[in-house]
Prior knowledge:
This protein is an alpha/beta fold. It has five helices and four strands; from the N terminus they run βααβαβαβα. The protein has helices spanning 10-29, 54-65, 79-93, 111-124, 136-154; strands spanning 2-5, 68-73, 99-104, 131-132. A four-stranded parallel sheet has the order 1-2-3-4, with helices on both faces.
Amino acid sequence: MFxxxxxxxxxxxxxxxxxxxxxxxxxxxxxxxxxxxxxxxxRRDLPRDLPAGEFERRSLEIVDEAHLLIGVLGPTVPKVxxxxxxxxxxRQARGEAMSxxxxxxxxxxxxxxxxxxxxxxxxxxxxxxxxxxxxxxAFLHQMYLTLFRFMQAQATPAPPSLSVPGAxxxxxxxxxxx
Length: 178
């Protein structure tokens, strides 16, 4: 999984990460009732010195491995976030296992958001239906709805190499949580 957003949305990213952690706690330890979501958060990555542009390349590679992307937009559509969302729709259009969802605050909706919608519709023949949030509580609600929808649609057993006898099953979602 991959949560994509600009720095101005970091408080919402934190809510999303906590929602995923809470969901994993619940599904892993309540009588094996569901999959475990795996992802990557660049903020927890090892410190490193990268050549200019390398972080963007790295994040797009992670999007290429993910099965779920949740874009979180505020008043802008940051450059890297836009590329990550478009990459997710590109993969979906090629028939790959990718479920892109975009959450946005309608109070700060503007031309960058409409331009993203137009590009996705024109280039990938998909319609972005944004999940709206106006508060942190509403954002949390949208996160859980999106995660439950994805889990219900995608739940499959983990590859045998990840299975541990007696442990809960895992939904293998390689990729990122950023």
